[in-house]
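DATA SHEET
Item: assembly model
Revision: 1
Owner: S.N.
Input lines:
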Amino acid sequence: MRHEVAPLRHGTMRERNLAVVLGEIARRQPVSRARLAEATGFTKTTVSSLVASLAGAGLVREDGPVRDGERGRPATAVSVNGDRVAGLGLEINVDYLAACVLDLGRRIRHRHIVAADNRDRAPERVIAALTGLAARAIAAAGEQGLSVAGAVVALPGTLDQGGGRLRSAPNLGWDDVPAGELLDAGLPALPLAADYDNEANLAALGELWFGDGPALGSYVHVSGEIGIGAGIVVDGRVFRGAHGFAGELGHVVVEPGGSPCACGGRGCLEQVAGQEAILRGAGIAAVTATSSASPDGPLSALVARLERGDERALTAVRRAGEALGQALATAVNLLDPDTIVLGGIFSGLAPWARPATEAALADGAGLVRRSPPRLTVSRLGGDAAALGAASLVVERVLDDPSRLVTRC
Amino acid sequence: MRHEVAPLRHGTMRERNLAVVLGEIARRQPVSRARLAEATGFTKTTVSSLVASLAGAGLVREDGPVRDGERGRPATAVSVNGDRVAGLGLEINVDYLAACVLDLGRRIRHRHIVAADNRDRAPERVIAALTGLAARAIAAAGEQGLSVAGAVVALPGTLDQGGGRLRSAPNLGWDDVPAGELLDAGLPALPLAADYDNEANLAALGELWFGDGPALGSYVHVSGEIGIGAGIVVDGRVFRGAHGFAGELGHVVVEPGGSPCACGGRGCLEQVAGQEAILRGAGIAAVTATSSASPDGPLSALVARLERGDERALTAVRRAGEALGQALATAVNLLDPDTIVLGGIFSGLAPWARPATEAALADGAGLVRRSPPRLTVSRLGGDAAALGAASLVVERVLDDPSRLVTRC
DNA sequence: TTTAATTAGTCCAGGTCGCGTACGAATTAA
DNA sequence: TTAATTCGTACGCGACCTGGACTAATTAAA
């Protein structure tokens, strides 16, 4: 099975070269055409032509003359134009909906989170609520002179590759919902087709652009919520496996023969370190659909107990951290990342869980590599996936601006 | 961190298009230029020009007229020329050296395995022996009119990305050996630079071209020897992780708190299902460097006991199979492959180990995906990695023939 | 047997796009 | 004011794909 290689004609060449120059501008802005020519290897002529196309599409802007070196004619700096094109990120999660708009400079231009218990609500109604949010976001963007190029939607469950069909979302109580179709029907037409992805994958991308950034290298981002997922990012791209189900960290077995899990296995990580398991272990009543109207009610109760030194809570959280470290050690042996990022509930519990996680990680992923990977804690809030989704739109535009450049 | 996108000039376009046409020829051979034009979307003119370049380099051959449809002028079929260019695969392993030559049609033109206990032998001497094998292989290819385009070397240990520095090869007793440099010095100059990779990765590729082929989809290939490694192949390409250490299946923990492992952990898969552990469990004396002059001496002893129904041996092998299944379930949850391929010692032990492996796999990797991946057993012999290495050279030529095409 | 239809491959003009050199523009140093 | 330096553009060139016309080789029908 060979990786499909597409025929290259002049048009494709131009498209790719637009992306090359735009990428270089994004990386070095503000930057002169002369520097771009040096950096890319193109001639100044070619750079000028490409920049002109990009400027025509509003993707790039001239910033006026800038003295670069000591002598000679001053350069006209070119930068990514953050005031014309934007990306829309949407998220459906268990207890909220979120939308955010990012301009091409990845500045947040609009951000709206609506608390709402979506468990066992009809998918159609939830999706209608989301498209409403989307319409308001697009309008808000418009008021700032931004036109939205495309949207990506984060969904909390396993998706069929491509179509955006939500195969199962246990925490939502949804099963085999054609979320992609429903959303395609409800969203306005945009230059780029809408895309759908797992919440864990997009939260991981959010970390790349709004967390520690490129310093992360290749990393595994744990998004612990009621379930535990992991987004695997290699070289700036999400690793999805053959069918898009890669990164199911929650069902790595950490206690062979342990308590049964809904997945059919026994001793899965989720049974030890999932939100419900931790709360149960800490002696806090399990959350029911009705009792959790306030988003992190039970979690803040847990944190309160931890802060006051409650032994039972500490033990439960430490055990969860240890189990997480064991599962992560396995992931490190198989995936060899530079960094592990703890997100979701684990970022809030990190002060108490992290030592155990780090110890277990060092234990299990020691000598094969030189050293275990760095362990960092996410500083992102609940809508990390929406941010990641919007970032993905921005990345798509930067990676292939040709869709927005008028052919001449 | 954006994926580096290289500027595209006319030359690059031509290079890529040569690869497109050559790939299509390889996929459909024998095939007419007219069909190629349809399949690729190029005009007939362009196809003719590209085919002429490829033919000039000896990569492709005209096969004479062939009646394709019912009416009309008969086509001249074009095929990959298997008689001019070849790839060389080399392998250093614990108890043998191997070389093989593959023509562009992936037919084996030369194959030589030399049994030799390389444990604790000086790296320089082993590498000198291998370059001797290589010289003979290149000569044998020459006698058949084949010129060797490049070589890939399989090494049994963890490698630094790129340079071919062997960081550690515990089963060889080698530590931080500049294998790449030594081999570069000893091998004759070839059009393509020599490359180095882990034995497990290359054995996995061997499976792709000499085992079940594309039907495997994305897969994890287990190469159990004294250590246990896994080659992860997604979309026809090896997944290496950030530093090239991905796929260390042997150090996945299957018995938390179990027996200590050289890696610093406890209860690693290798401690339960590695060759030494199985032999110990079956009551067969552990292998020492001197006692294993005959390659699979102790293993065939084990198989003999299994065939005669020895309880102790059966128990050890079943336990190993079960542990392997547990580790693989974890790998499935994280990597989401289509298929698992059992290679190395596990292919010989499959009749006894497989049921336990399959059960454990189904247990741990059940409901998150629709079903656990297919489990198959490799039919390849010991030099799977050498075959994979030579295949990789062939794949490189097919993926980028421009190096061999004389610029005009 | 001739004629029309059909399919394969080549030839030649044309268009796109990057390359290279030359040149004008804008600025600093002498 | 003049020379040096650097930036960006203009214009001709060459690489390479496109498209239509043309030749070649064969089958089906008249």
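QC remark: Chain A has three domains: 10-80, 85-204+385-404, 212-379.
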